Amino acid sequence: MESQLPKTKEELEEQMVDDAFQHLKDTYLASRHRKKIDIINKTFNFARQAHKGVKRLSGEPYILHPIAVAQIACEEMGLGSTSISAALLHDVVEDTDYTVEDIENIFGAKIAQIVDGLTKISGGIFGDHASAQAENFKKLLLTMSDDIRVILIKICDRLHNMRTLESQPANKQYKIAGETLYIYAPLANRLGLNKIKTELENLSFKFEHPEEYANITNKLNFTKEERDKLFEEFTAPIRQALDAAGVKYKIIARVKSPYSIWNKMQTKHVTFEEIYDLLAVRIIFTPKVREEEINECFKIYVAISRIYKSHPDRLRDWLNHPKANGYQALHVTLMSKQGRWIEVQIRSDRMDEIAEQGFAAHWKYKEGNDSQDGDIQEDEVELNNWLRTIKEILDDPQPDAMDFLDAIKLNLFASEIFVFTPKGEIKTMPAGSTALDFAFQIHTFLGSHCIGAKVNHKLVPLSHKLQSGDQVEILSSKAQHVQPSWINFCSSAKAKAKIQAILRRENREIQKKGEQILTDWMKKNDFELTTSNLDKLCEYHDMQKHDDLFLAIGERTILLGEKDIDKLNEKDKKSTSTSSWRKYVSFLGLDKKKKKDEDNTVEPVTVKEGFNKKKPCIINEEHIGKYFFRDCCHPIPGDDILGYIDNKNHIEIHKRNCPVASRLKTSYGNRILDAKWDMHRLMFFDATVEIKGIDRKGMIFDVAKVITDELDINIHRVTVTADEGIFDGSIELRVHDRSDVKLIMDRLKKVDGIQEVMRIN
Fold this sequence. Notes:
Layout: H1 5-30, H2 37-50, H3 64-75, H4 81-89, H5 92-95, H6 100-107, H7 109-118, H8 132-144, H9 149-163, H10 170-190, H11 194-208, H12 210-222, H13 224-244, E1 248-255, H14 258-268, E2 279-286, H15 293-305, E3 316-317, E4 330-335, E5 341-348, H16 349-357, H17 381-395, H18 401-412, E6 416-420, E7 426-430, H19 435-442, H20 444-448, E8 450-455, E9 458-460, E10 472-476, H21 493-524, H22 531-540, H23 546-554, H24 562-568, H25 573-576, H26 590-599, E11 617-619, E12 628-629, E13 641-645, E14 651-655, H27 659-667, E15 672-677, E16 685-694, H28 699-710, E17 714-723, E18 726-735, H29 738-749, E19 754-759
C-alpha cells in the first residue's frame, strides 16, 4: 500500500493537469474563433514534456502555470489559437534547453516570435549598471511593436503570477507588486483591459498594504446592505422608463475597487466615509440596430434625465470621441432622491465587451472578419498611433533604464484631452499637455523652434496647459533653440524624449571635452579613470551619473582641485556618513546626530556575499542607526516599509508607497528587501500634520490644547496663515509612531472649524 502512495500523488497531479487543459479546450471551443485545436494540443504536449518534473514554489506541477496563462488569454481576453499556443510555450525557452529556433522549426515563425518576445534576456541593452527588469521590459515592448499579442500574453502571465503571489517571500512580493502597479496595470488600462487592470491594482495593493486592504474590504462588506438599498431605490424608476420604451437592457451596480478607494483616500486626504462615489450604475443595452447604437445611448440619457436632475458639468461623451484605448460610453452624473450624486454609465453590449476585454474584443464586431487568428485587427488607428509613439521612444537610445521606464510610464496614462488644430483637425493629447507638447506632437522641427502659441486666438507661453476643446496655433522662429528648462514645460513622453535627444546631441561634445579634462587631471595626479573613482567624484559633487559629471567639468561648473584628490584618497571618511543626498536617521534630533558623528560608533549595515535577502530587516532602537532613511518619504514606526540595497551595498529604508520606492521596485527589484519595525516607544520621530478650515477666535489655542494636554505630545513648530476667514497651517510634532499621528489626526478632526487634516510626511 505504502509503495503506491507516491504514484497516487503523481497520478493526482497528472489528473489535475489533464483537467486544467480540458477546461482550456472547452473554453476555446465555446468561443467564436475558428477551431484550430490541433496546434493547441501540439503545443501543450510539447510544453508538458519540456517542464516535466518541475514544480512551482507553491508545490504544484509547473505546467499548470502556462495552462493558467493560456486560460486567461482565452477566457478573459478572448484571444485565439496563436496566442493560446504561445502562452503554453512562454516559459519553455527561458526554463529549458530548447531555443527559439527549435520553437520556430516545430511551430512556425509567428508563435516563435511571440515566445521570443516573452523570453527574458541575459545580455544588456542599457549597459552594465542598468537593471535587468528595464532591459526585459524594453525587449518586450520592441517585440510588441511588431505583434501586440506579446504584451497581452505578458499581462496574462503577470495576472496569474499576482493571483499566486502568496507562495513568494515578502521581498519578492514587493518587487512584483510594485512592478505591476507601476507598469503592468497602466499597460492593461492603455490596452482597454479594464477588468484585468482593476484586479492587478487590487492584488498589488493587497500585498503591499495588507492591513489597509483588509480594512477597506471589511468596510465595503459592512456597507453593502446600504448600497444595495440605494441601488434598488435609484434604479427602480429607470427600469420602469426603459421597459416602457421597449429597450433590451441590464443594469448593474459598479462598486469602486479597494485600490481606487485607497488611492482617493491618499490623494484627496479623506476618510472612507467621506468618499461618495463608491457606487456607480451601469446600463448595458442591446441596440435594435447596431448602426444606431450611439443614438440609442443618447435616447436612454434623455429618458433618465427626465427622472433625475443631471450634473451640468459632469457629462462625459466618450461615444463620439472614444478614449485612446478604444473605450466608448456616455457618463452622466445624476442627483438621487437621497441627495447623493450617482454616476450612470450608458453603453451598448459591444462597448461593454470592448471596455472589459480591450482591443482583443474589437475583431468580433468587424464586418467580414477573417483574420488568420481572429486576434487583433491591424486597422486600430489609436492603437497603432500609440505603438508608433512607443517605437519612437525605443528608437532613441535612452542611456538610463529609469529614464526609459519613466518615459513609458508617462505614455501609459490613459486620461486624455481633445485639442483642435487651426484647420479644425482633432488631436488626442494626454491630460496635462502644454502648448510645447502640442508642437512636438505635430512635428519635431516645429517643437524645437517653438516660441509660443495662440490658444483660442490668445497669445500664451510654451508652458500653457491645454484644456479639452482648445484650438491651438503654434508660433515658431528659426532663431529659437531647445532649452534644458523645456523638460519642465512638457508632460507627454514624446515631447520629453525628443527634447532629451536634442539636448544629448548638443551635450555630447561638451561631455567629451569634460572627459578629456578629467582624464588629463587624473593622469597628472597619478589616478586612473576607473568606475570606482568616477563614483567617488559623482558622490562628492552630488551627481547621479558619470555623464553629468563630465558635462559639469566640460561646462566649467566644476573645477577639480585638492578636495577632489582628498576624496579619491578617501581622506574624508567622516563626511561620507552624511553626504548631501542621504543621511542616517535624519529625524532623530540634531544632538544625537552630532554625538554619533563624534564617536562614530554606529557603522551602517553592509550587504556582503551570502546575505539572506529573504530575511526581513528588523529595525529596533539598537539597530536603527545602521540603516539610511531617505528624506523622500520620511518613514516612521508603523508605516509599511521596505529596504533597498544601494550602490554602496548599504540599506535604505522607504515607505512602500513612496514614489522613489515604486521606481526602485520596478527597475531594481532584486535589491528589494522586506523590512519590519520592532520599536518600543522609546524614541521620538518628526511628523508633520497639515490642517485646513474656517478661522475663528481661539482656534490655535484649541488645536494646541488637543495635542499637548490631552495627548501629551510635543509640538516642535507651528505655522498658521489665515486669509479671508480660511486658515491653513502645518504642525511639526515629535511622536513615537504612526498610531500617535493617527490619534492626533482623529482628535483634530473633531475641533470645531477644522475641515481637513492630513499627514504630509
